[in-house]
Amino acid sequence: ECRERDERRAARRIKEAGFPQVKTLESFDFSRAAHLPEALIRELAQTGCYIEGAEPVIFLGEPGTGKSHLAIAIGVAAAQQGRAVRFATAAQLATELSEAKDARQLSRVAGRYGRVEVLVLDELGYIPLSRSDAELLFRVFAERQERRTIVLTTNLPFGEWTSVFRDPRLCKAVVDRVTFRAHIIETGTDSMRLKSSLKRKKGG
Predict the structure, then answer these.
(1) Per-residue pLDDT for 199 more than 70?
(2) What's residue 191's pLDDT?
(3) Of the candidates 55, 54, 51, 60, the residue with the CA atom closest to the CA atom of residue 124
(4) pTM of the prediction?
(5) What would you report as the CA-atom Rg of the chain, rounded to the nearest whole angstrom?
(6) Tens of pLDDT along 75-86?
(7) Which of 71, 51, 50, 47 is CA-nearest to residue 61?
């Protein structure tokens, strides 16, 4: 009964996190990505040590290299360990914060994202942000720094984040906060999705 109760609670936390799909490390093929630090990724997921230290985890690489899968898998593991987790894309979070600002609910919404134990923020860098949206995202980053962890995926090297956060000073402040004591994991440039598609085509 205790095990079933724990499993129901874990399932509820995973659902509340808002993951687009439930991904796990068990379903990730590390043999196709030998350059990845598998031991470190598994340690982060299994122990949750990054959460206690409020240490960001950043997956940086080109599309199709497994960033989102790994970030979600770490978030799912955290939820299974009893942590409060929330998933959002950078564009979704910026939109939600902007709408909250218009509705005069910004403090409540930003506070909710600031307090959740693990924030999984996907696809930072895919869509440029307006100055207002960039400042709203920065507010969440600033509230979480050294208090709550963030698991982040991005396709841009840090030197190119000015294409997202166009104000140079704001960009510098964002990079400074999200990289402080961070585990930065480069997923590379070769798309595993493209390789898989080409292999299937060749096989057919």
Answers:
(1) no
(2) 78
(3) 60
(4) 0.91
(5) 17
(6) 999 999 999 999
(7) 71
For the segment 91-112, the average pLDDT, to the nearest whole number, is: 96
* Tokens standing for residue 91: 């564009």
- Residues 159-175 have a mean pLDDT of 94
- DSSP characters for the chain? -HHHHHHHHHHHHHHHHT-SS---GGGS-GGG-TTS-HHHHHHHHHH-HHHHTT--EEEEE-TTSSHHHHHHHHHHHHHHTT--EEEEEHHHHHHHHHHHHHTT-HHHHHHHHHHSSEEEEEEETSS---HHHHHHHHHHHHHHTTTSEEEEEESS-GGGGGGTS-SHHHHHHHHHHHHTT-EEEEEESS-HHHHHHHHHHHH-
The CA–CA distances, whole Å, from 193 to 22, 33, 66, 128, 198 equal 18, 12, 9, 24, 9
The one-letter amino acid code at 189 reads T
Whose structure tokens read 């955290």? 78
Please state the separation of Cα 112 from the chain's center in Å: 16
Q: Is residue 197 predicted with pLDDT exceeding 70?
A: no
> Residue 182 and residue 185: Cα distance in Å, rounded?
9
Residue 2 binned pLDDT confidence (cut-offs 50, 70, 90): confident
